[in-house]
Write a sequence for this structure.
């Protein structure tokens, strides 16, 4: 057995297992991460977050993100907010603003006086090939300042905004998120051949010029109660289409986030909560064969 101290956290219902890789040493396999994230055999979480010492001098920490399927991913907005709360609660820093190394660069995180966390999510990427998305042989169309792309899903055509918030997103406008085919179409979009690294599928409903409702089928996880990068992608998409104004509230099933974007960096403000702490023994040998994400 591998014995680890962990902290269970959530941000707007998006839940995480946070592991301190500074004060304890370990190396987890993808199958062990799947076991940890499994809600029957392990602790249960959408993602596993690993805090490490930075590898670059301009960062305070490094953090790595693993989806419930065991795969490492580039970015997680709700996880970033939980990261800030964790390093303060663990007394790893007393700085209100910290710079954190992630897979694709640096992000800046700020703990506010009211307990909310503001995350500089960086600048959205709209070039399809950089998302990455294959636009070959597709006829796009313009919607406001946005470009939308057609995809075939079960013989039907749907239109998507395609962008990266450090990780890939495909956002579609729907009339009602409660009746949108999130589970069936979400799985098809996530695995669509035009997204060679798979994609997070967002289903966005415009309520008012200051309010979006959103559901996200996350890559390697399935539908989650909230998705920070998905909220940013939806807000940016809606602003570019002229449907909402900045700042905009993005309401998801687990809570609300405030997104601010005026053409450069995207800022996200929202909660992060410690749920409980504990110690877990992770099996070193074969794991139950019916653990599958």
């Amino acid at each position: 057995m591998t014995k680890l101290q962990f902290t269970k956290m959530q941000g707007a219902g998006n839940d995480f297992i946070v592991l301190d890789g500074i004060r304890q040493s370990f190396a987890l396999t993808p199958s062990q991460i799947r076991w940890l994230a499994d809600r029957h055999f392990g602790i249960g979480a959408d993602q596993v977050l690993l805090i490490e010492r930075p590898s670059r001098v301009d960062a305070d920490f490094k953090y790595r993100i693993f989806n419930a399927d065991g795969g490492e991913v580039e970015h997680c907005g709700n996880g970033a907010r939980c990261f800030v709360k964790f390093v303060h609660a663990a007394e790893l820093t007393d700085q209100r603003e910290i710079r954190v190394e992630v897979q694709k660069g640096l992000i800046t995180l700020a703990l506010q006086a009211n307990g909310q966390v503001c995350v500089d999510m960086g600048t959205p990427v709209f070039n399809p090939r950089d998302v990455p998305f294959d636009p070959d042989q597709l006829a796009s169309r313009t919607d406001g300042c946005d470009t939308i792309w057609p995809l075939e899903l079960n013989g039907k055509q749907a239109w998507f905004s395609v962008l990266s918030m450090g990780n890939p997103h495909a956002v579609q406008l729907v009339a009602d998120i409660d009746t949108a085919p999130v589970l069936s179409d979400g799985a098809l979009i996530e695995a669509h051949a035009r997204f060679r690294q798979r994609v997070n599928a967002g289903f966005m409903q415009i309520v008012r010029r200051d309010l979006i409702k959103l559901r996200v089928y996350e890559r390697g996880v399935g539908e989650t109660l909230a998705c920070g990068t998905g909220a940013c992608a939806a807000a940016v998409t809606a602003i570019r289409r002229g449907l909402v104004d900045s700042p905009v509230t993005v309401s998801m099933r687990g809570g609300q986030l405030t997104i601010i974007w005026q053409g450069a960096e995207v800022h996200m403000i929202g909660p992060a909560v410690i749920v409980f702490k504990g110690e877990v023994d992770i099996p070193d040998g074969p794991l139950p064969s019916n653990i599958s994400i």
